[in-house]
């Protein structure tokens, strides 16, 4: 039921965005991430390429139905990059954690396996992101901001989770 609600709220906005061509380059987010020296600077990198996309795409600053689609498409494009970073960090962590968990005894005297803890955390986080973004869209009702709320929410939350997972100890 929750997934149906998520689809009903977010998919119309995402589908609308697919029809709008944008001028997107992930270079600004990549450069920002490489130059960041602390957590606050890294967090500020989320949305940099989206904002540059909006600034560089013709029609993005003109009021009308196409404007929201352009902005949403810019947000979705950057979300894909953060999603790939998050997925890569998750996979690396799972490999490392599974290897280090291999020697644990299953007699209840050892710590909770790290791989299982990460798997449970990520599953819970995915649900949390979905519900947070549904609420974010719902709070905007039928305002023009509702069309952007879902994609921007997914961008912000996915970027933050990618940075969190990257901050955990793992070997590359």
Descriptive notes:
There is one protein chain. The protein has 172 residues and is mostly helical. It has one domain (2-167). It is built from 7 helices and no strands. The chain has helices at 2-18, 27-35, 39-44, 48-56, 65-101, 114-139, 146-167. The radius of gyration is 18 Å and the shape is elongated. Mean pLDDT is 85; it is low at 1-18.
Which helices and strands appear, and what pairs or packs with what?
Blueprint: H1 2-18, H2 27-35, H3 39-44, H4 48-56, H5 65-101, H6 114-139, H7 146-167
In summary, what is this structure?
With about 170 residues, the chain is an all-alpha fold.
| Helix vs. strand class | mainly alpha
> What low-confidence regions span 5 or more consecutive residues with pLDDT below 50?
1-18
N- to C-terminal separation?
A: 39 Å
Question: What is the element string, with H for helices and E for strands?
Answer: HHHHHHH
Seen as an oligomer or otherwise, the chain set is: single chain
Query: What's the shape?
Result: elongated
SS elements, strand count? 0
Q: What would the average pLDDT be, to the nearest integer?
A: 85
Main pleated sheet = none
The number of helical segments is 7
Share of residues in strands: under 5%
Instruction: Return Rg in Å.
Output: 18 Å
Give the key terms:
172 residues; elongated; mainly alpha; disordered N terminus
């Amino acid at each position: 039921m929750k997934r149906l609600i998520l689809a009903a709220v977010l998919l119309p906005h995402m589908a609308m965005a697919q029809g709008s061509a944008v001028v997107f380059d992930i270079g600004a987010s990549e450069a920002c991430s490489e130059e960041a020296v602390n957590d606050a600077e890294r967090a500020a990198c989320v949305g940099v390429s989206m904002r540059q996309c909006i600034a560089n795409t013709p029609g993005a600053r003109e009021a009308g139905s196409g404007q929201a689609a352009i902005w949403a498409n810019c947000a979705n494009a950057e979300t894909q990059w953060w999603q790939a970073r998050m997925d890569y960090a998750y996979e690396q962590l799972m490999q490392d954690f599974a290897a280090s968990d291999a020697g644990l005894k299953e007699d209840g005297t050892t710590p909770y396996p790290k791989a299982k803890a990460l798997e449970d955390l990520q599953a819970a986080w995915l649900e949390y992101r979905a519900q947070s973004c549904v609420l974010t869209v719902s709070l905007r009702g039928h305002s023009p901001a509702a069309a952007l709320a879902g994609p921007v929410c997914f961008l912000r939350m996915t970027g933050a989770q990618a940075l969190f997972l990257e901050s955990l100890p793992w070997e590359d």
